[in-house]
Every structure is written in C-alpha cells, then in structure tokens.
Design goal:
The chain is α+β, with helices and mostly antiparallel strands. Helix content is 45%, strand content 24%. The longest helix has 62 residues. A hairpin with a 4-residue loop joins strand 7 and strand 8. Keywords: Membrane, Transmembrane, Transmembrane helix. InterPro entries: FN3_sf. It comes from Lymnaea stagnalis.
Length: 286
C-alpha cells in the first residue's frame, strides 16, 4: 500500500514538472514571436487564396518593395513595386492583405495596372502588418513566379505632438495679428486726437488775434481814425494807412493841439502808441 502511494506521488511530481516545462517553453515562444515569424506564417498559408491555388514554379521574397503613401487616423494607403521582373511580357496579379485584431482584410485580385491599395476603417495609433503577393506570369517562358513581402505600418494618433505645436503656433500667430492691429488702431486714434487738439489751438489763437485786432480797430475808429477794411486784416490795413498818412496825421494832430474844434486830441499814452514806421518814405512817424 505504501509503495503504491509513493509511486503515485512520483508520477504526479513528474507530470507537474513536465507541465511547468511546457508552460515555460510556450511563454518563451509567445514572447519571441516577431514580424519575421508572422511573415513565415503568412508564407505557409499562402495557398488559402483562390488565385494562388494555381501552380507556380518559384517563390521570391524581398525583391518586392512596399511603402506607405499616406497614413491617417483610420486608413493606410500602401503601394508596391517589383524591382526585378523575370520576363518583359509578364502579366501581374496582385493581392494585398492587412492583418488586424478582428481578422484579415484581403483585397480583390488586382491586375498589372494597379500598384496601390487603400485600407480603410482602421483603428487610430495602431500597428498593422501589410503583406503584398504578386504572381508574375510569363506567356513566352510559360512560367509563374510568386513574389511576396510584408511590412509593418501604423495609423497616426488622433492628437499628435506636432498637431498640438501647429495649433499653438496658429493661435499665437492670430493673437499677434490682433495685438498688432489694435496697436496700429490706437496709434492712429492718438495721432488723430493730437492733430485735432492742434487744429483747435490754432483756431483759438486765430480767433484771439482777430478779436484783439477788432477791438483795436474799434478803439481807433471811435477816436476819428478811418476804419480799416477792404478784405485785408486789421493790422495790415492799419499799418498801411499809418505808413502812408502817418506824417500828415501827426502834423494835423500837432497843428490843432490848441484848437477846440475840427480835430480830436490824443492823450500822452495814445500819442506814444501812434509811433509807426512809414515803409513808403522810410521814416518813423510820431
């Protein structure tokens, strides 16, 4: 009885040890699975497509170049090119495959005129394996060669770092334009206000000068001196009149200083104000 129990324990221990070894090997196999392993697996299952069921003479890997034309958040546009054709009269038949988490996306049979395909409805910021299979058929040599290659491509994220930088730069540019426009408008309004104040000051000075001239003319006009006019300013007309008639006026005023009628006398202050330069005779009149 004891021997049978011991034998059972030994068998159980051996089974547990074997199971642990299998689990460790399986984990190592899964962790080491790479793109090359996927490509090898794709090569082994290449006969699952209908147009590849026909016999071919040779398979070539690596001379078929694959590249992405455009990658968006939900699509991949890939293209391919066969770098070395075995015959000049060859006819091409292509198929493109995209491996996704929900299965494979397989294109229709594409002919020689087509060398690109657009995978849509993909997930953003996701890595995909794209495989291209090209069957080259030569009519003269009566041979068929299968060319294939696989490459990883990724869709772009919804918000990328360069997109954020672009948005910041755009907003900064528009903000700078607004600030510069406001500064130009404020400067223009400031200049307009300054010019308006200057015009008002000049107009006020002109009004004050005209008012003084008018009062002065009214003063001399009420004392018997001719009221100056004729379109010229009061100061100019007064200077002209006194320049031409200053001597006679002064003599007349001096000759009738003792008279009681016929002329009007001036006070000492008014006589001192009546000193003018006669521009015509180049003499000073008192």
């Amino acid at each position: 009885m004891l021997s049978s129990v011991t034998s059972g324990l030994r068998q159980t221990t051996r089974a547990s040890f074997s199971l642990s070894i299998v689990v460790a090997l399986l984990h190592q196999l899964v962790s080491s699975y790479s793109t090359e392993d996927f490509i090898s697996h794709a090569n082994r299952t290449i006969d699952m497509f209908d147009h590849f069921r026909e016999p071919y003479d040779k398979r070539n890997y690596g001379i078929l170049d694959i590249d992405v034309i455009e990658a968006t958040t939900s699509s991949l546009h890939v293209t391919w090119k066969l770098t070395n054709m075995s015959s000049s009269d060859s006819v091409m038949e292509s198929t493109v495959i995209c491996e996704t988490t929900n299965g494979r996306i397989v294109s229709d049979k594409l002919h020689s005129a087509t060398n690109s395909f657009h995978f849509q409805f993909l997930t953003s910021d996701t890595r995909y394996i794209v495989c291209v299979y090209v069957l080259e058929k030569s009519t003269t040599a009566n041979t068929s060669i299968l060319h294939y290659n696989c490459q990883p491509f990724s869709t772009i994220p919804l918000v990328r770092a360069d997109s954020i930088v672009g948005v910041i730069l755009t907003l900064g540019y528009f903000g700078l334009m607004v600030v510069m426009g406001y500064a130009a408008w404020w400067r223009k309004m400031k200049n307009a206000r300054r010019n308006g104040d200057e015009d008002k000051r000049k107009l006020k000075d002109a009004d004050d000068s005209e008012r003084k001239s008018t009062k002065k003319l009214e003063k001399y006009g009420s004392s018997g001196i001719t009221n100056f006019g004729g379109g010229a300013s009061g100061d100019e007309a007064e200077a002209k009149w006194l320049g031409e008639n200053g001597v006679a006026a002064s003599k007349s005023s001096a000759g009738c200083s003792g008279a009681t009628t016929g002329c009007v006398g001036f006070s000492k202050e008014e006589e001192e104000d009546m000193v003018y330069y006669n521009a015509k005779n180049r003499e000073i009149s008192f």
